[in-house]
Specification:
There is one protein chain. The protein is an alpha/beta fold and about 280 residues long. It folds into two domains: about 30-125, Leucine Dehydrogenase, chain A, domain 1 (Rossmann fold, 3-Layer(aba) Sandwich); about 140-265, Rossmann fold. It has ten helices and eleven strands. The strands form three sheets. It has a six-stranded parallel sheet. It has a three-stranded parallel sheet with strand order 3-2-4, sandwiched between helices. Strands 9-10 form a two-stranded antiparallel ribbon. α1 runs parallel beside α10 (about 260-284) and α2 crosses α10. The protein starts with a strand and ends with a helix. The model has no long low-confidence stretch (mean pLDDT about 95).
């Protein structure tokens, strides 16, 4: 079966260009969209993500403020900085790069961010708004998954959608967003009995299990659309996902590659949330 490669790089480029044009229009009205990015410690992966976010801000005409704090920063110091940024009317979005050092409670930090500036969409009130269909920020990776499907002309309404993985950042919000698009959604996880039987029902299978090449061809229905959220390095140092691409792709009608699938979308949707923050802040 010939399959469509869902090109996250190309779609993220479109979204960033749309953000750039909107940011330009706001600038013409005297509004400069500003994102504050906080990194505590020098985790190398976090450093890469932060640099990518700053670069995306530049591309989209969004001002970025950078706060690089030492590893030994106390929870109190971090909360105090967030408090100042919450009060700063020039700042539209606040992003704290996770993970945080062990002396800092991540939940406390996420809850300290003003929900109207929660561009990561991790605040419990943002999650609650998604659950009840209210306006609010949606976490970037699940929002990116929906854009990948829609912009690839893949119908969600009425389809059997299975999400493998139940994290607060990807699995649960992805399931809610698919439901919002009128998909029939099953959320499964490591304790699901007969996981293969469940995933094989999927017209659209979203995989966020955090295990390299876990999903092989026998988990996938002929003609399914497969979205791979995972990112790992294999024994040869090459990037791979949660899906064994080589065995699964021939069974699919469409599939995301790793890299170049979901990854670029996360940052594009962060930019989209920053732009949306200007109007959203009036409604939240």
């Amino acid at each position: 079966m010939s399959y469509q490669i869902i090109d996250g790089k190309a779609i993220s480029k479109q979204i960033k260009e749309e953000c750039r044009l909107k940011a330009e229009r706001y600038k013409a009205q005297g509004i400069e969209i500003t994102l504050a990015v906080i990194q505590v410690g020098s985790d190398p992966a976090s450093g890469v993500y932060v640099r990518n976010k700053k670069r995306a801000c530049e591309e989209c005409g969004i001002k970025s403020l950078s706060y690089e704090l030492p590893e030994e920063t106390s929870e109190e110091e971090l909360l105090s900085l967030i408090g100042r940024l919450n009060a700063d009317r020039e700042v539209n979005g606040i992003l704290v790069q996770l993970p945080l050092p062990e002396q800092i409670d991540e939940d406390k930090v996420i809850q300290a961010i003003d929900v109207a500036k929660d561009v990561d969409g991790f605040h419990p009130m943002s999650a609650g708004a998604l659950c009840t269909g209210q306006k609010g920020f949606v976490s970037c990776t699940p929002a990116g998954i929906i854009e990948l499907l829609k912009r690839s002309n893949i119908e969600i309404s009425g389809k059997e959608c299975v999400v493998a993985g139940r994290s607060n950042i990807v699995g649960k919000p992805a399931a809610l967003l698919l439901l919002r698009e009128n998909g029939t959604v099953t959320l499964c996880h490591s304790k699901t009995a007969d996981l293969k039987e469940v995933t094989k029902r999927a017209d659209i299978l979203v995989v966020a299990v955090g295990r390299p090449k876990f999903i092989t061809a026998d988990y996938v229905k002929e003609g399914a659309v497969v979205i791979d959220v995972g990112i790992h390095r294999n024994e040869n140092g090459k990037l791979c996902g949660d899906v064994d691409f080589d065995s699964v792709a021939p069974k699919c009608s469409a599939i995301t590659p790793v890299p170049g699938g979901v990854g670029p979308m996360t940052i594009a949707m962060l930019m989209s949330n920053c732009v949306a923050s200007v109007d959203l802040s009036k409604d939240i």
